[in-house]
UniProtKB/TrEMBL annotation, chains A, B:
<dbReference type="InterPro" id="IPR000600">
    <property type="entry name" value="ROK"/>
</dbReference>
<dbReference type="InterPro" id="IPR036390">
    <property type="entry name" value="WH_DNA-bd_sf"/>
</dbReference>
<dbReference type="InterPro" id="IPR036388">
    <property type="entry name" value="WH-like_DNA-bd_sf"/>
</dbReference>
<comment type="similarity">
    <text>Belongs to the ROK (NagC/XylR) family.</text>
</comment>
<protein>
    <submittedName>
        <fullName>ROK family transcriptional regulator</fullName>
    </submittedName>
</protein>
<dbReference type="InterPro" id="IPR043129">
    <property type="entry name" value="ATPase_NBD"/>
</dbReference>
<dbReference type="Pfam" id="PF00480">
    <property type="entry name" value="ROK"/>
</dbReference>
Length: 398, 398
DNA sequence: GTGATTAATATAGACTCTAAATTTAGGTTC
DNA sequence: GAACCTAAATTTAGAGTCTATATTAATCAC
C-alpha cells in the first residue's frame, strides 16, 4: 500500500537513504561542518561521520582542512564539501537552425559553451557530426574527458516518450535522426537523455529562471512556432506519447488558428500591412522585414508597428489563456528567440488575459535567453546523476 | 539528492517499509501463505512472520486456520489475509442536483449506497443536512459506526486545492458551503478529503472503469457542463489553484464556444430546430424535449434527431481534440449523466477527431454510470488510508 | 509407524542506527 | 606556559532490523 522500493529493505537501505539525504544537503549548501550536517539531517554525529567517510571514498565529497567559522571556541570541526568536480554533465540543445552545447559541473555551473549552425544541414549524419564537433569543442575548452561526463541531456523539437525515444509522426520529423541518442553514446560513451525541447525549457525556468520555487509552471516557447512545457506540482508532464504541451490544438482556437509563434506572426502581419502602399510607417525603411525590426519600430513609437504588436499580444493572450485555464499553472513563462522583445507585449497580454478568466496565471518573460533549452538539458542530466549518484562509479582521476 | 523521508532513517524505518510492502501485497491479493509472501516480497521467512505478527497486532491482517492449496505435502502453512473490515471508507458525491454516498470496505467493495435529491436545497446548511442524512442511512444499512470510518472522500463541482480547500471564484459557488469539510468532520469525526468531482472521476475510471492500467488518462464529464479530470503517469493534475481540467477555455474554441455539456447542447439544439414549424420529426410528440428523448429518437432513426447528434458529436470531438492534443492522454473517457447514450456518438467523435490530429487519443464511454464520482471518492479515501495505514490506530472492535 | 516433504521456529551473525561516556584540539586566562 | 574552557571528535555499549542456517514440527504417503 505504502510505496516501497522494488527490492526488500535491508539494513543497507538505511545507509543508502541517509547517504542520499546527506549528499542532497551537501550538493546545495556550501562547505559544511559535521555539526551543521547533524542539524540539517537530524542524524547522529556517529552516523554523519560514517556516511561522510563513505561519500569521500566514493568521490562525491571532499574533506577540507579542519577550521572554523569565525567564532573560535572548542575543537575545530571536520569540514566537508560537495565535490562538484566529481564529474560533469552536458546540456545539448539541437534546434532547427542551431545546436548549443553547455558543459557544467555537478552544481550546474557552466564551464564551457559551444555551438554550431545547423541551417545548412542536409542529412541526419551531418547534424550529428556538427553536434559532435560542438561537444568536442566544449570538452576541450574545459579540459574534460568523455570518461568524466556522467550524463548528457539533449533537447530536440519533437515529442519524446518517457523512455527517451523520439516519436516521429509527421513528414517533417522523418528527416530527423531518431537514433541520435545511440549515435552520441557510441561516439562518446556517456548516457544520452533525450527530451522534448519545451519540456527542458520548463525544467530550466524552474531551476534557474523565472519559475524558481514555482511548482505549477508552464513555459511557452514562442519564437517561430508555439510549443509548451508543463509542470504540475514540480513534475514534468509527458503524456502517453510524449505529446504533453503539444500546441496543435491552437488550430481550433478562435483568433489563433495555427501554431505560428510570435516572431513568425509579427513578420507575417508586417508583410501584410506593407502590401498596402498607402500605409505610412518606418518599417518601409528596413532592408528586410523581421520581428526584431517591428519590435524596434514599435519601441520608437511607430503607430503601425504598435498596432501589429497589439494584435500579436491579443493572439498570444488567447494562447496563454487556453493553457492557463486547462492546466492552471501559477506562472506562464514566455521564452524562445523573441523572449526579450516580448517584454513589450506583457502589459497587453495581461490585460487581455483578464478578460478570459478571473484567475489568470501570472505571465513573465524568460531571462535565460537562447540558453533556455540547454540550461534545462543540464538540469535534466543533473536529475539523472542525482537519481543514480550512489550507483555510479566515478572516475577517481577528477 | 535522492528523495528521502523527512526524518532521519533509523532501523525502525526498515520495518515500516517492509510492513507497507507486505500490506500492499496482502491488500491486493487474497489469502496468502508465508511462503507466498516470501516470494512476493523477496523477504526472509523470519522477517515475513515478524511483520505479519505486527500487522495482526495492529489489526490490518487476520490469520486463518493453517491449511494448504490442494497440493498437500509437508507442514501446513500459516495463512494470512488482509482484514478488509479493519475499517471502512465513504465516497460522497455532492452534485448540483443530488448527493450520492457509498460505503466501502478496505478493498473498496461497496457495502451500502444512499442518496438524496438536492434540487430543492436553498442554503448550505440544508445541503449539509441532506448529505448527513444519506451518510447516516448508508452507515445504518451496513451497521457501521462513525468510529470505524477511516476517511471519507468528497467530490464537489468546484475547484479544490491540494490542501482540500474549496476555492470559490465566481458568484455561483459562493452559494456553496466552502466549510463543508469541517462541518462533516464535526458531525462524524472522520477525516474529510475534499476533491473536485472531475478529478475523482478520473481516479474512479483509473481504478474500476475504462481506464484501468492506463496511466495517462483523461475523463470528460459531459452532462450539463463539460468538466475534466487529468492524469499523467498515474498522477492526478491539480494546477496551482485546483483548476487543472477546467474547461472555461472552450469559450475560445471554434465550434464550441461555451462549456455546455452534451445533454444541454442536445436539448438546446432540439429546441432550436423545433422552433421552425415546417420541420417534421417525432420529437414533436414528446411532452418535454430532453437529451434522452433526442437520443431515443435518433436510435429509432429520426433524421432530425440524427442530425442533432452529428452536430453534437462534432462539437464534442473538438473538445476531446483540444484536451487530447495538449495533455496527450492515451484514453479519454466520456462520463456523466449522458455517458451511456453517448455511445451512439462515439463513431462520429472518433472520425472527426482523426481530422484534428494524427495521433488521437482513444475515446471510450464510462461504464460507471452515475457512480463515477462516488467510486472515485472511495478510491481517494482509500489512497489516504493506504498512505497513513501504519500510523492509524484502528478501533479493534471490527 | 516410518520416511518424505514443507514450513515454522530458534539461533547466530552482520549492518545500521542512537546514546552516552571519553578523548582531543584548539582557544582563553592568569 | 600551565590550567581551564569549549566544542567537536572518537569510542563504547546497546537496540532494532535484516539474513542465513540449523533445528523442530506438522502433515501425507506408504
Amino acid at each position: 500500500m505504502t510505496s516501497a522500493p522494488v527490492t526488500a529493505a535491508t539494513p543497507a537501505l538505511l545507509r543508502r537513504v541517509n547517504a542520499g539525504k546527506l549528499l542532497g544537503v551537501l550538493s546545495t549548501a556550501g562547505v559544511m561542518t559535521g555539526t551543521g550536517l547533524i542539524q540539517a539531517t537530524g542524524l547522529t554525529r556517529a552516523t554523519v561521520h560514517a556516511v561522510c567517510n563513505d561519500l569521500i571514498d566514493m568521490g562525491w565529497v571532499v574533506e577540507l582542512d579542519p577550521g572554523r567559522d569565525d567564532t573560535a571556541v572548542g575543537r575545530p570541526s571536520r569540514r566537508f564539501e560537495f565535490n562538484s568536480r566529481a564529474g560533469y554533465v552536458l546540456g545539448i540543445d539541437i534546434g532547427a537552425g542551431r545546436t548549443t552545447v553547455l558543459l557544467a559541473d555537478l552544481r550546474g555551473e557552466t564551464l564551457a559553451k559551444a555551438g554550431r549552425s545547423l541551417s545548412s544541414v542536409k542529412t541526419p549524419a551531418e547534424r550529428t557530426g556538427l553536434v559532435h564537433e560542438a561537444v568536442v569543442e566544449a570538452l576541450a575548452v574545459a579540459d574534460v574527458r568523455d570518461s568524466q561526463v556522467l550524463a548528457a541531456g539533449v533537447g530536440v523539437a519533437a515529442p519524446v516518450d518517457r523512455a527517451g525515444n523520439i516519436l516521429v509522426d509527421d513528414e517533417f520529423w522523418r528527416r530527423f535522426d531518431t537514433d541520435l541518442g545511440h549515435r552520441l553514446t557510441e561516439l562518446h560513451g556517456w548516457p544520452v537523455l533525450l527530451e522534448n525541447d519545451a519540456n527542458l525549457a520548463v525544467l530550466g525556468e524552474h531551476w534557474r529562471g523565472q519559475g524558481q520555487g514555482i511548482d505549477d509552471l508552464a513555459v511557452l516557447l514562442a519564437g517561430e512556432r508555439f510549443g509548451s512545457g508543463l509542470m504540475d506540482s514540480g513534475r514534468l508532464l509527458h503524456g502517453s506519447r510524449g505529446g504533453a504541451g503539444e500546441m496543435l490544438y491552437l488550430k481550433l482556437v478562435e483568433g489563433v488558428g495555427d501554431t505560428h509563434g510570435i516572431a513568425r506572426t509579427t513578420r507575417d502581419q508586417a508583410v501584410a500591412v506593407l502590401a498596402d502602399p498607402t500605409v505610412r510607417t518606418r518599417l518601409r525603411d528596413v532592408s528586410e522585414v523581421t520581428a526584431e525590426e517591428v519590435f524596434a519600430a514599435a519601441a520608437a513609437g511607430d503607430e503601425v508597428a504598435l498596432g501589429i504588436l497589439r494584435s500579436v499580444a491579443a493572439r498570444t493572450a488567447r494562447v496563454v489563456a487556453t493553457l492557463g485555464i486547462l492546466v492552471n499553472p501559477e506562472l506562464v513563462v514566455i521564452g524562445g528567440a523573441v523572449a526579450e522583445a516580448a517584454g513589450q507585449l506583457l502589459p497587453d497580454i495581461e490585460e487581455q488575459l483578464a478578460g478570459y478568466t478571473s484567475t489568470p496565471p501570472r505571465v513573465a518573460v524568460s531571462s535565460l535567453g537562447d540558453a533556455i533549452v540547454s540550461v534545462g538539458a543540464v538540469r535534466h542530466a543533473l536529475n539523472y546523476v542525482e537519481q543514480h549518484a550512489l550507483d555510479l562509479v566515478l572516475t577517481r582521476s577528477a
